Model the fold of this input.
Amino acid sequence: MNFRERLIHIHHCRGAGWQTIRKLLSMDPELRMLYDLTVQDFHTDLHLPLGRAERLFHDLHHLDMTALLTQYRNSAIHIITVFDDEYPELLKAIYDPPWVLYTLGRMDLLKAQPTLAVVGTRRPSAMAYQNMRELLSPLIQRGWVIVSGMALGIDGFAHELSLNGKTIAVLGSGLYHPYPASHRRLFEKLTAKQLVISEYPPHTPPHQWQFPVRNRIISGLSRGVLVVEAKEKSGSLITADQAMEQGRDIFAVPGPAFDPHYKGTHGLIQQGAKLVMSAEDILDEFGEF
Done:
């Protein structure tokens, strides 16, 4: 195996999270000694709990990567590592870029610019849908890439609006397990005409903890994040917080002053997010591309 294949292999192993791979690369930048490491090495040198070290060691020596990689190729899944030229520069610049991305669809969209993340509630009001049509349509017509998470509500509608433009969906599960199940048809449209990506190996089922983690990719791919409608405690605010840490611009759509559906959005505006009333408010921030 070459370095790239070794990295993809360790990325498939249970117990090998982002920090574990970072420590491995720090100790052995080419991963040349990877297959010589023992369970005790993983436990002692990488400070992994013993059970986790045993699972990592087992997968490292029992996964049939040749068969898996063949299966991915047959499924038209393309794999990109953070060291490959195809890897998007904006995402590479964040603190914790995914070591590996698994993609289905138009690879050219990973390098397309400008990009805008669109996030919000899973239960939008009629006003939110109307706001999205008015705000996003001019951007889509100008060739902007709309990035979102294929979730119910705002995410899914952002992708639907962009199907004849450019859009990237970032999953919180593997490509063989698109979530939610009710968006299966949308997933098929996106993989046929647009791009779907995940940092999780394709066979990874959805788990609740994975979705907040993937939000850093949604913001990391984007020059700015538009929050359309969000309550005070909302997953969309996690994406906004990560965008702030990454130095991205935050845009928020205002709503009725005392509407609880907009409490999170109004909080972002109080914290300095740019209040958005038209597409021009976003275009003015970035100028012409």
